[in-house]
Amino acid sequence: MSFNEANVQDALKNLIDPNTRKDFVSGKSVKNIKISGNDVSLDILLGYPAKSVWDEIRSLVEAHLKVALPNAGKVSVAVSSKVVPHAVQRGVKLVDGVKNIIAVASGKGGVGKSTTAVNLALALAAEGARVGVLDADIYGPSQPTMLGISGQPESVDGKSIEPMRNHGLQAMSIGFMIDGEDTPMVWRGPMVVQALDQLLHQTRWDNLDYLVVDLPPGTGDIQLSLAQKVPVTGAVIVTTPQDIALMDARKGLKMFEKVGIKIVGIVENMSTHICSKCGHEEHIFGSGGGEKMCADYNTEFLGGLPLDISIREQTDSGNPTVVADPDGKIAKVYKQIARRIAVKVADMAQDHSAAFPKIVVQNT
Predict the structure, then answer these.
(1) Any idea what the Cα angle at residue 65 is, between residues 61 and 66, rounded to 5°?
(2) pLDDT given for residue 44 in this prediction
(3) What is the C-alpha separation between 271 and 337, in angstroms, rounded?
(4) Cα within 13 Å of Cα(177), Cβ side
């Protein structure tokens, strides 16, 4: 009994992508089905970076087709990923060289937002994406230290600046522009907004799939201005389980909703404490707060990260956890959260502005 392309499509309608939780056909991942005699070949094109699970997905699809099409001979599946730009808040143009901007924010300081941002950026890069980090925390830039980058950026044309690079990331921060780590930024709000605008638009970002923006903590005038000027695909809120942190995180979430920025989900940092002596794990800051907040606001709980001394030591040394211990338990959690963020972004409405011609009116 022979089979055709429609049979292959029908078979894959019953197979769920473990990352998107949708079948591969409705997820529009199935491409280039070819049948030669009894042999079948096809491509699975994922809309999110997932290098670490390509082999797993290939094996899953091949095994499923061999059962669904018992007469099939050789089944060949090629898996790859392609990230496209997605829509941002209305009236804000995309940045040259950047497909998607993910804002990492917190309602208050001290919840580990910058550490989370840099590790999520490194996790996305480990999954095969082209990733940059913009340190938007003008008053307390920490990404140069966390990424182990020193020196100042270069300008080839005298107008734009080249991003700094390390660990496979492109990076920009006001910290690269000032002399000395202890130089304070004594600036008023409008100066800060202008500085960020310049860092974002004058950096020559090189074909980024994702730019992770480490926003300053809080929900004041500066954060609101940034949210209105930066074309954000989605925001990730970082909190800790304490009631006071969750209360401020709720304010951050509401701020993004007011300016039309989609919430990707919530990351609970310091969910548990792991004793460095015995390895015992306990909820010293309380438990379940992040999940309850997600239920209250109908958003996704992306994952919980432990309070572990190794995260602090590795990040302070300029080698964050995802690169210092890439196969470790904590790096695995960062990668799971990063993949979930990428899947949720891939599910959002696409940006089609690049498909329209630019109309220029000139006097001749």
Answers:
(1) 120
(2) 95
(3) 14
(4) 20
Give the domains, in start order, of the chain with CATH numbers. 5-81 (3.30.300.130), 98-346 (3.40.50.300)
Burial of 82 (0-12, 13-18, 19+ CB in 10 A): exposed
Question: Are the CB atoms for 68 and 11 separated by under 8 Å?
Answer: yes
CB atoms within 10 A of CB 295: 11
pLDDT digits (tens, 9 = 90+) for 13-65: 989 999 998 999 998 899 999 998 889 999 999 999 999 889 999 999 999 99
Shortest CA distance to 110 belongs to which of 285, 239, 219?
239
Q: Which is nearest to 2 in space by CA: 32, 41, 40, 37?
A: 37
CA pair distance 190, 178, nearest whole angstrom: 18
The 10s digit of each residue's pLDDT in 308-333 is 788 888 888 889 999 999 999 999 99
What are the contacts of 24-33 at 24+ separation with CB within 8 A?
24/61, 33/5, 33/8, 33/9
Cα separation, 178 vs 185, in Å, equals 9
Rounded distance between C-alpha atoms, residue 105 and residue 111, angstroms: 10
- The CA distance from 120 to 104, in Å, is 10
Residues facing residue 30 across a β-bridge: 44
pTM confidence score: 0.88
Determine the residue type at 154.
Answer: E
Taking each helix axis from N to C end, the angle separating 309-316 and 113-126, rounded to the nearest 10 degrees, works out to: 80
CA count, 13 A, side-chain hemisphere, 104:
33
